[in-house]
Amino acid sequence: MKESQLSTADCQLHKTVVLRRGKAESLKRFHPWIFSGAIARRDPGLEEGDTVRVLDENGNFLAVGHWQVGSIAVRVLSFRDEPLDRAFWLGRLAEAYRMRRAIGLAGSADTTIYRLVHGEGDRLPGLVVDVYGSTAVLQAHSVGMHRQRQLIADALIEATEGTVSHVYYKSESTLPYKAGLGQEDGFLTATPPADADDVATESGLRFHIDWLRGQKTGFFVDQRENRRLLERYASGRRVLNMCCYTGAFSVYALRGGAELVHSVDSSHKAIDLTCANVALNFPPAIAERHEAFADDAFRYLDHMGTGDYDLVVLDPPAFAKHRDVLRGALRGYTRLNTLALRKIRPGGVVFTFSCSQAVSAEQFRLAVFTAAAQTGRHVRILHQLHQPADHPVNIYHPEGEYLKGLVLEVE
């Protein structure tokens, strides 16, 4: 459609961005990002978070999205010329909810923790929604999503067919700081009763969820399937859970019959949360097999005894949040894995992960290969791990594949 062919109402609906010649190809392949260098001109008065219609150099419609300041200039929400109104949000959220029902998460009594919206993977770039029982935690990563937060929250209640009754907005640490929004976290809908339980369930295990002050949305939802796999390996083993945070891997290991479990995190608050989650799930006779330590990961691994453990989990925070620090991050992964592979008991198993989007699966595997070579031990890969189905990857946006993991057996 030519720009000149649009109706007056269409033109007033959104401001306009026009691309340079030859810069429309990625959009024709449905990639959801438009970089600033592709922009030829834009309407005056355009502000961060505005909804824009994107046109090619000849005035042909390409997409609708949110304008933002930075290298990614537009996050595309639709390749149809449609208003981003209540019907749009309700439709996208209902689609996301139907998929979670289809894979057995939404509506399950056994698991009330899942990701409902995973940004580009659900065609909603800049938005993350995690569900914990009847509470959804909404996180905006763009000003456009921030400006639509109340509309999204209201649509969430309807789209989830009443299973979600409270929406907590937690974006203080994820919004662009240069936008100067002064955002404070809080409930967008009715707050839960004062005596409401903060416990949600994953695979029949219960966890305290600190969506008010915890990392991310309060829990690492993306490791659910990998925790189940670890449970299968845990029987009779001495387990070290490094960078434990909520202690979820530790809880699964105990249920799997681990001989002992040690949890380590640099945060005292994380250690307290881990111990609380162990106590929540097990009687004292089992819980006494668990011990937690507040310590630096590298220091702990450096000082622990050779052969102390025969199952080690390495799940550090992202070492590389952008490509400028990629080299240092890869060195960090290599060092961490070298220490674990060198000291694990013969026949031991290592679960090692990277959640750094800037680190590719190939780069992570090379870092682990380098670590194995430095130890001189025979190591083989048993499993190659990734994020679960409620963290889908848009096939046109491979950058969304961020979680990498390997399960290694060490001679």
Note down, in words, how this protein is organized.
The protein has twelve helices and 20 strands. The protein is an alpha/beta fold and 411 residues long. It folds into three domains: 76 residues, Archaeosine Trna-guanine Transglycosylase, Chain: A, domain 4, CATH 2.30.130; 117 residues, RNA methyltransferase domain (HRMD) like (Transcription Regulator spoIIAA); 191 residues, 3-Layer(aba) Sandwich (Rossmann fold). The chain has a seven-stranded mixed β-sheet with strand order 16-15-14-17-18-20-19, sandwiched between helices. A six-stranded mixed β-sheet has the order 2-6-5-4-1-3. Strand 17, helix 11 and strand 18 form a beta-alpha-beta unit. Helix 3 crosses helix 5, helix 6 packs parallel to helix 7 and helix 11 crosses helix 12. It is globular and about 65 Å long.
